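User: structure tokens for this one?
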Amino acid sequence: QVQLVESGGGLVLPGGSLRLSCAASGFTLDYYAMAWFRQAPGKEREGVSCISSDDGSTFYADSVKGRFTISRDDAKNTVYLQMSSLKAEDTAVYYCATDRRCTVEPGRGPVGAYFKSWGQGTQVTVSS
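Assistant:
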């Protein structure tokens, strides 16, 4: 049974950093792309970043490019999202998801409809 569990969310000051983790179980991460999405209150879900399984290519939404970094540790079956220079508008529930490949929309990151398995999310709040 595929299971994804996010952790690492919390309250952070504007300009601060957080690292989110997504621990995968029930499948071998090596053969799957992993992605991060987020959803703020009253807004639609937004693709944030994706990392492929074959060559480790990474993709980012323009809104986070240069501030967020996605990485994966297949030995630990875990994917990470390092977030820096956080802004109030980054406040959202962050979800990880998996599929065979990264399906992305240029400038807007991964496309949620193509990802089949999802975690429960972790809250990130950026506020002073």
